[in-house]
Amino acid sequence: xxxxxxxxxxxxxxxxxxxxxxxxxxxxxxxxxxxxxxxxxxxxxxxxxxxxxxxxxxxxxxxxxxxxxxxxxxxxxxxxxxxxxxxxxxxxxxxxxxxxxxxxxxxxxxxxxxxxxxxxxxxxxxxxxxxxxxxxxxxxxxxxxxxxxxxxxxxxxxxxxxxxxxxxxxxxxxxxxxxxxxxxxxxxxxxxxxxxxxxxxxxxxxxxxxxxxxxxxxxxxxxxxxxxxxxxxxxxxxxxxxxxxxxxxxxxxxxxxxxxxxxxxxxxxxxxxxxxxxxxxxxxxxxxxxxxxxxxxxxxxxxxxxxxxxxxxxxxxxxxxxxxxxxxxxxxxxxxxxxxxxxxxxxxxxxxxxxxxxxxxxxxxxxxxxxxxxxxxxxxxxxxxxxxxxxxxxxxxxxxxxxxxxxxxxxxxxxxxxxxxxxxxxxxxxx
Length: 431
Description:
This protein has 431 residues and is an alpha/beta fold. The protein has helices spanning 13-25, 37-47, 64-75, 85-93, 109-142, 161-167, 171-174, 179-182, 197-204, 251-265, 275-291, 307-314, 316-332, 358-372, 401-417, 426-430, and strands at 5-9, 29-34, 51-55, 79-83, 101-104, 146-151, 156-159, 184-187, 208-209, 214-217, 223-234, 240-249, 298-305, 339-344, 347-352, 376-378, 381-383, 386-393, 423-425. The longest helix has 34 residues, at 109-142.
């Protein structure tokens, strides 16, 4: 391993030579001696020494301190000052000594050796620490999640670029501000503010997930659903000294969840509720009857007449268009609280909520049949279909949704047997 190379910067030539000789005796390389700050900076650029030893009282256009600042900042090379005690007292008074290392003149060779080795070692430690900090900063800034760090008072200390993007705040703007000012969170469903979760985490001393339906209001007012967690930060003794929030924009996840939910409960062709959702709403209607004895509801089971022939003659594409148009007409015939669903194929069902009696159900059935009498136009092709409708009412004492829907289906077949484009009531079937 090559011995460390030291550049000596000293205005007094005799002293400079003595220092150079001492360094060489100690095993260092000291090929250069210069007597000005300007020349020293040039030599540093040319020779890249491991250390610069400079007289604190160096005269010239660039003084010792300014020269050292340039060398440390631009070349990342440590500087060791040669000074005397009176100069040291002045430096301490002006608080200029903290960043630098010193050796007092006159000095023994062992003192010079110790000062040089200490300065070189300190520089290596600082360099490794800087590299580690830079590595951690690179990781922090490269994370695909937003990361936001607070102190024990829940004031912003650090943010990575993703956090800056989502919140709309730059770190220099947010630094020292209260978390809730930068990370404004509301409950998406209620619109209420979410309390300072960093404070909650530090009080509880445990990791906590962000609340459900957590919505971030960015600096420019944009609403962003976010999710993940908040954790307390502890020092080496276990004391809580802050909190770290890790979060991400979950807009896409919410959209996927909503689509999965829609696929599970809605018909992909017509957009109407499917059988699963219809039966769930029917169960809810049964629960209302238990709470309100006067509550009544009814079910219409609808089957399109002659749909198979249209499908066979004009193709499935035309059949699908007819189903979509029919679904829209069925929706237009209902009240706001009612539900129409596609059960499958050309079968539909309607849940009529809070009806007074049979006449409410038959009036809706008539309205549906009247609506379907108007022909539908598809690419200059005119189509018309009718429907057979079965009616079953909750007043018949049903105990479960399946039985009521089955009886409405039975009544529908009775209507179809009567000549199609009719409706039939289940009571009449068994009466």
